[in-house]
Amino acid sequence: MNNYQITDPVDLNNFTTLEKIDKATKKLRKLNKKLSKLQEAMYAEGKYAVLICLQGMDTSGKDSLIKEVFKEVNAEGIQVHSFKVPSYKEKKHDYLWRHYIALPERGKIGIFNRTHYENVLVTRVHPEYIVGENIPAATSVAVLDNAFFDNRMEEINNFEKHIVNNGTIVLKFFLNISKDEQKNRLLRRLRLKEKNWKFEPGDLKERLLWDQYQWCYQELLNKTSTNFAPWFVVPADDKLSARVIVAQTIVDTLKQYDFKEPELPEKYQLEIGNYKKQLQGE
Q: Are 97 and 159 in contact (CB under 8 A)?
């Protein structure tokens, strides 16, 4: 059993945010290559897709993790989506629509950088966003009680169960950083000129709501970590170690599927010698 997988009720206060892995750089390089080979075999087999969901507080390292964990995978085998504020068109559909149409094709790894869980996270901290969706069940902030969000989380579980049943392997990672580490990373963005562009004043406003976000994360971890689409809580104060943990989890999971590359049809195998002669005789 993966030490980071959520299988029992959790209290995030009991989780460490810092773990140091020895020889992490060397381990990550090996995992990069293994992941590339697994994706290639998965593509050749053509039965499965992989959906990697990344969540975490601002500065938790999602962008750099994507870059470093998947750097050896064929670019054509990766699809990355970063979900921002819903567009006008997206708001004309249900909240899962834009996520469904972004799902990876069979043979490919899809990465959701921020995910469908924003709909029970940011919207729970800022329920006025849901009122803006103009749906029948959300006529005002006052009616958006715990039961409303519990229902949404059940809908998300059903969504994930549906895609798993149809060949998508779902792995969800919460990059768990401490409030002090977030402060350090925000200060770094202000201190280093080349990092200034990453800073937004809104990050400071959201930081004031840290405890509310932590409670919402705890709720979704407890109610949406399933055996078919598990959550993993990854200590993320050390970025390199977090990348190793995520990469190792993905590799270990995909190895269980024992992807089989299709064999050349027998009628062609019998002619291999002739094909070689034809090419060599050119």
A: no
